[in-house]
Amino acid sequence: MSRFTELNARRAHEIISHYPRARSAIIPLLHLAQEQEGWITNDAMTQIAELTGATAAEVLGTGSFYEMFKFHPVGRYLVNVCTNISCQLLGGEELLEHAETTLGITDGQTSDDGLFTLEDVECVAACTEAPCFTVNYRYFHRATPETFSEVVAELRAGRNPMEKGQQGDRGEIPDHGTLSRTLQHIPADRKAGIVAPEEAAQAPSWMPTETGENA
Amino acid sequence: MTTEAPAFAAGFINNQGPKLITGRFTIEDSFTLKRSLATGGYDGLKKALARPPADVHGEVRDAVLLGRGGAGFPAGVKWGFCPEGVWPRYLVVNGDESEPGTYKDRLLMERDPHQLIEGCLIACYALGLSQCFLYVRGEMALAQERIATALNEAYADGRIGRNIMGTDFSVDIVLHWGAGAYIVGEETALIESLEGNRGMPRLKPPYFPAAIGLYGQPTIVNNVETLANLPWIMNNGAEAYKTMGSETSPGTRLFAVSGHVNRPGVYEVEQGVTTFRDLFYGDNFCQGMRNGNDLKAFIPGGGSAPWFFEEHLDLPLEARPVGAAGSMLGSGAIVVMDHTTDVVKACLRLVRFYARESCGKCAPCREGTTWEEKVLRRIYEGQGRPSDLDLLEDIGDNISPGPYPVASFADQDLEAVPFPPKQTTICPLGPSSVAPISSALRRFRPEFEALITLRDSIAVSAAPIPEDA
């Protein structure tokens, strides 16, 4: 069974409450499922379908479009090496080769100890800081084969390599699946009111009406 | 003084020009509400709330604020496309930055989320938008974290939600995050994704989601950088904004210069008055090519832009002249290649991107980009055929018919074909895949031919040995 835990079920309802239509929550809920299990299970998709009024096939249909969702187990650390143009010009492909040798796996594979999955990815928006790689979507800028090896060694030893990331983020790297370590909370007394579009068919209060008066 | 930013603002380079949207980048805790308020944060919103919404819209229209996502359409005009009397209307913020070479929106979201939130609030107030969705690219975990924290702080402080800052203006802003798909940066695909679907662009017309967008309602989709300019415009006015930059492209823009320059980085640059040459060779900017190498080619506006060369260095960083010269400034992503660059390899890598990222909705793009990649790969690997270069041009012509935008080449007596390309597809992804091929083939055809000839020479010397030998 890999349905949402009690805590995550509450989070799921909170996420759904942020949207005028529940279906809009499908992608955030898939992320939540991936945060809980490290990948997306069939049970998770069935439950997300129940929660959003979609079918499980529709949830899979949406999820399978996006490359961050994994429908099979992956390593604890997803290592993405960028080889797109800016990184390629400054050694991204050589960095990928080094990563393959260091981890003993190629693009898409997971190491035998279940610690690393390696991917050859598209531009991750760090182009001036090329070449770069990410570990569970935490950035390591201006990487060299040496820094790559050091980061891998730290992770293998259970230490935090974030200070090599040069991004001003000193937190721990969470396991694969966790993106933001903070969720948005809208206090009930502060909410302007999120309702289905058909229930909000009036001009909002601060907009002048056609006669020039405030509504 | 021009300085490189500390590690926490990696990539940003503090040059001597005006700072409209990067003013807080070098402050370590710039992403907190406390620091934002201490440095003038939300003052622009306060000024906007004291004026009628139509006035605020008018100010943005007068400022000629051009969209910073790629197409460069004036935001104030786009805002005007909402049909009258149709409610509710929504704002969707495009933070799905993923054009090859582009690094600016991530910085804006990580370093100054409150500036972006303030911009969203100003837009919502001006247009009567009842909810805003901040769509952040899935891979940008830190940006999501900083925005989530900023939203929580701003809600608690009465700056988002019900009766904002004691007025009758009320709007909810929700953080939404993607899951890895370049095409979702196209605004109708972004809306599909936000509705919980596969991120495939919608058929046009309507050309603008301002008519029919999210949940079928009028929807404004603006880029992160576009919205980040609104607080400054509210604080200082359209007239002050127009004193910077050029008449058709006022203000500043963020340009990410990557590749073979001495000091790659993200620069806030006054549009129109700075040229590519200033940017690549200026002391305040990139300080020349690495090792004093020669420039071979540069991409002026992201992977989708046709390439420029040495003779285009004196063009100003301004949308119109760059468009007329056969390319685009796109998302402000400039990739510089020196004379050591293997253009066939670079071209193959860019095309692989489009082949991977094609959503598959339109056949010319789905099939065409894959064929382009296959043909380029076999050329690169020494297996090319003499007919392959014509084949590449033919595939390109099926995705983007007619003359493709191209820069003028003095030595080939060729006039520039202005941007944008024609397309047989719903969105510009397919046509974008033609840009690197068409540019590189036109300029560096002998390098492609050499690889194909190489294959012939190898084939002769390594002819298969007959089985009975």
Task: Walk me through the structure.
The complex is a heterodimer of chains A (215) and B (469). Chain A has helices at residues 6-16, 26-37, 42-52, 56-63, 85-89, 92-103, 145-156, and strands at 77-82, 116-121, 133-135, 138-140. Chain A is an alpha+beta fold and 215 residues long. Among the domains of chain A are: 6-63, Arc Repressor Mutant, subunit A, CATH 1.10.10.1590; 77-165, Glutaredoxin, CATH 3.40.30.10. Chain A has a four-stranded mixed β-sheet, covered by helices on one side. In chain A, helix 2 (26-37) runs antiparallel to helix 3 and helix 6 (92-103) packs parallel to helix 7. Chain A is globular, with a radius of gyration of 21 Å. Chain B is α/β, with parallel strands linked by helices. Chain B folds into three domains: 19-242, Rossmann fold, CATH 3.40.50; 252-338, Ubiquitin-like (UB roll) (Roll), CATH 3.10.20.600; 343-459, de novo design (two linked rop proteins) (Up-down Bundle). Chain B has helices at 33-38, 43-49, 53-62, 75-79, 105-111, 113-127, 141-156, 187-194, 224-228, 230-242, 276-281, 319-324, 343-357, 363-380, 388-399, 429-461; strands at residues 3-4, 13-14, 89-95, 129-136, 172-177, 219-223, 252-259, 265-270, 295-299, 333-338. In chain B, strand 7 and strand 8 (265-270) form a beta hairpin. The relative contact order of chain B is 0.12. The model of chain B has no long low-confidence stretch (mean pLDDT 94). At the A-B interface, helix 2, helix 4 and helix 5 of A face helix 5, helix 7, strand 5, strand 7 and strand 10 of B.
Topology:
The complex is a heterodimer of chains A (215) and B (469).
Chain A: H1 6-16, H2 26-37, H3 42-52, H4 56-63, E1 77-82, H5 85-89, H6 92-103, E2 116-121, E3 133-135, E4 138-140, H7 145-156
Parallel strand pairs in A: 1-2
Antiparallel strand pairs in A: 1-3, 3-4
Chain B: E1 3-4, E2 13-14, H1 33-38, H2 43-49, H3 53-62, H4 75-79, E3 89-95, H5 105-111, H6 113-127, E4 129-136, H7 141-156, E5 172-177, H8 187-194, E6 219-223, H9 224-228, H10 230-242, E7 252-259, E8 265-270, H11 276-281, E9 295-299, H12 319-324, E10 333-338, H13 343-357, H14 363-380, H15 388-399, H16 429-461
Parallel strand pairs in B: 3-4, 3-6, 4-5, 7-10
Antiparallel strand pairs in B: 1-2, 7-8, 9-10
Helix pairs in contact in B: 2-6, 2-10, 3-6, 3-10, 5-7, 13-14, 13-16, 14-15, 14-16, 15-16
